[in-house]
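Input record (one chain):
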Amino acid sequence: MLTLASTYTFGDALLTVLELALFIAWLCLLFYVFADIFRSHDLSGGAKALWCLLVFIFPMLGCLAYLIVRGGGIHERALVTQRQNEDAVRTYIRQAAGTQGSASLGELERLSALHKQGSLTDEEFQSAKDQLLTKT
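The corresponding structure, as predicted from the sequence alone:
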């Protein structure tokens, strides 16, 4: 064990760290390529299967071939997906916030208008307002 430690120099350690960093970068690229393959709506199911097969059988060559052939659109497809997700979140937030708040506000405005017209007495207005506010 002592001889192994003496032969493993600082340069060997730096080379190991470099190899590990390159391996992690390659894994990130591999996952990014797979994500883009499945994110692409312009590829048919057969084309997706062939790209996956190529990347599985020849990982380094498959990733490089994918980047050469389809690399220009990776960023655009990622942006489209991101925009769709943001729009879906905004729509959900608007729907969730608007269902209780706008209905209550509209009802309060209607009650206030009826009260100002004299159709509702003070007691009826207060009772209806209390019911509406306790409901939300």
